User: Fold this.
Amino acid sequence: MEGLYLTAGSSVDVIDSVFKNHYYDGIYGNNATLTVADSTFEDNHYEGLYLQSDVTTSLTNCSIETSGENGVYASNSDLTMEYCLVDRSDVNGLYMVSTSNLTLEKCVIRYSGQDGLKLSLNSSTSIKNCWIHNNGGAGIFFDRAVEDPVVRNNTIYENFTYGIGASDGVADPDIINCIIYGNDSNDLYRPTDDFEKVNYSCLQNARAGSGNITGDPGFMNIATDPNDLHLDGTSPCKDAGDPNGSYGSETDIDDERRIEYGRVDMGADEYYWSSADFDDDGIVNFIDYAIFAVAWQTEPNDANYNDVCDLQDNNNIDFNDLVLFCDDWLWEKAWGEGWMMLMGSSGEGFGPESMILETALGLESVKPAPMGRKDDLMLSSAIESLAARPERLMSKSEKFYAVNAFNTISALRARGRAEKGVQEVDVDAILEWLAEIWLDPEVQEGIDAEDWLKLYLSLKEEQKKQ
Assistant:
């Protein structure tokens, strides 16, 4: 039967659960409230979720795979989905009817037997920052939409018929900042009417509207992975979206900031490669820190000056650059590591937690480095290292820069950003961060002790001035 059956008036929270191989549906609901997080629906005979009528549902970090009919069916219901995968449904990925409301953000809908999303008589629809690809019909089909659907910053690719289809004589979808490309029949289709509100999108065919382009969108890894729709740095969709749009704190499908280089990109992915990834290996870690430490407090005429470390672009490797480096510490490329690239039948690796690594500043939670090393700087804590520093290193701490104002970190993560401001820098937090990473034996192996100590002591001097 059903994995979970919600009767009238039910209100249920479901967390970290698996609904698999049920003869009917994974979850059936009628006149209920349902919240599901971090859960998997797999191989259910009919629907992954069947929302019969008047069911308010929130799905977060869920996978709905290999459903015998629709991944989700909803009638006269409100559905919100975020960080979800709907994969290989026999019929439609999502099928909604009878004045339902849909909010779909940062989801992947792929390999459905028919349409990725089939929305009939929906009252309101908002679809943002999603990948909708390789479905057996249209990526999205709007049947008699009641209100104008919002379709923004989506990548709709390689669907068997159309990228977006819609019936005639009803609401006109507002399509903006989208990539609609590689669909077998056409990018957009209506039987006799046209789409009147298509702007700043990458399309298969030329179309009236502001900012539209045609041609290959330039995916980074599409030749080796048909499920990876991240943009390459040379993509024509990069910095080509609506420059006047309002994006606030919105993030892309990888949960990275929606605007990175001064203007929004087309599609669900916002291209970004950290300037602090000095060795271009796709992660900002102790290897990059070692490069930075060698160049610390140098100028162009100095022997150890390294231009790639000048993140502030002011011809000094100084405190400004350290702030920017710390801002991207443990940044990791999303392709190959982002939540949508890690999705599997186990339900693990979903949502932003699977791709964001946070470094705690508290030293008490970090294991001390192993003792017994010959170097007298390799002690069990950063404080002991400072106390034991030999006389020959004392002069290393004398040089430091007096910095009073700093550009906003978020506005300077790449060169050429337009927005600038001033902020207070938490030197204490940076010092604790430096002390913490020093306790990692791998860091001690990869970073020269004198370089680390020079940086640490110069910041201690800066701390005294605050």
